[in-house]
Write a structure and sequence with these properties.
With about 240 residues, this protein is of the alpha+beta class. The protein contains five helices and ten strands. The model has no long low-confidence stretch (mean pLDDT about 90).
Length: about 240
């Protein structure tokens, strides 16, 4: 078991090492040796004689990801089905606003937010109970996506996550814009093909950009020029203007 992540297991050494990533009842198996993977699956099937689902392919669906291993020394990650699921959630949430046979259309965008994304209109109408629940559900669903293959929506999605207890029509419109961006870019992917193993960190910050005087920071981590982690931080220090 990995000391830093209890969901990662490994056995063996060198080219014979086998790694397992476990999430509830979904298991990913990784090794340089296909023989080692086949032997593990064979032994695993003995433990569960009633049957397990085993997928062997260079393109796999795992935990909402589309994992493409078809190019040597490269992993391509995307979540097109998950993006469409978010569009479906918005369609269901707005069904009561359309006529019976009216077609659902969502406007797409080239960016997830406008330049005034942090502005809060105090006189914007509060959402009703049902719309507020749908808003919360869609924002939470997008947070999962933001932390995996679409880090560019992380900042605005996190901002809206802080608005779920007091969400307004303005917040709803911001959420709809993110969904429109997600739908337009659903086939975009993260490509992991590091040229070296040198880590690099980039960070930036904006001062007093929130209505309560707080600032906003962002950090991305790369290895070999490939993004592997992104974080946003809303600073706790307030400025008096």
């Amino acid at each position: 078991m990995c000391e830093r992540d209890n969901c990662i297991f490994h056995k063996g050494t060198g080219d014979n090492v086998v790694y397992l990533s476990v999430f509830v009842d979904d298991i990913g198996i990784y090794s340089k040796s296909q023989k080692n993977i086949d032997e593990f699956v064979k032994e695993f099937k003995k433990l569960y004689p009633n049957g397990i689902t085993h997928t062997k392919s260079n393109i796999l669906d795992y935990l909402g990801f589309r994992v493409d291993l078809s190019i040597k020394k490269q992993v391509t990650l995307s979540m097109p089905k998950y993006c469409r699921k978010i569009g479906d959630l918005l369609q269901q949430a707005t069904a009561h606003t359309r006529k019976k046979d009216e077609e659902f259309n969502i406007k797409t965008y080239d960016s997830p937010a406008s330049t005034d994304a942090f502005n809060v209109e105090e006189d914007s109408e509060l959402l009703g109970e049902i719309d507020a629940k749908n808003f919360h559900s869609i924002v939470a669903t997008m947070m999962y996506l933001a932390k995996r293959t679409k880090p560019e929506i992380l900042t605005i999605t996190s901002f809206l996550a802080g608005r779920v207890s007091k969400c307004t029509m303005q917040d709803w419109q911001k959420m709809v814009r993110i969904v429109g961006y997600v739908i337009k870019t659903q086939d975009d992917s993260l490509v992991l093909a590091p040229k070296h193993l040198i880590p690099e960190v980039y960070c930036d910050a904006s001062h007093a950009c929130h209505v309560d005087g707080r600032g906003q920071s962002g950090i991305i981590y790369t290895i070999g020029g490939n993004l592997f982690c992104a974080k946003k931080i809303q600073t706790s220090i307030r400025s008096v203007i």
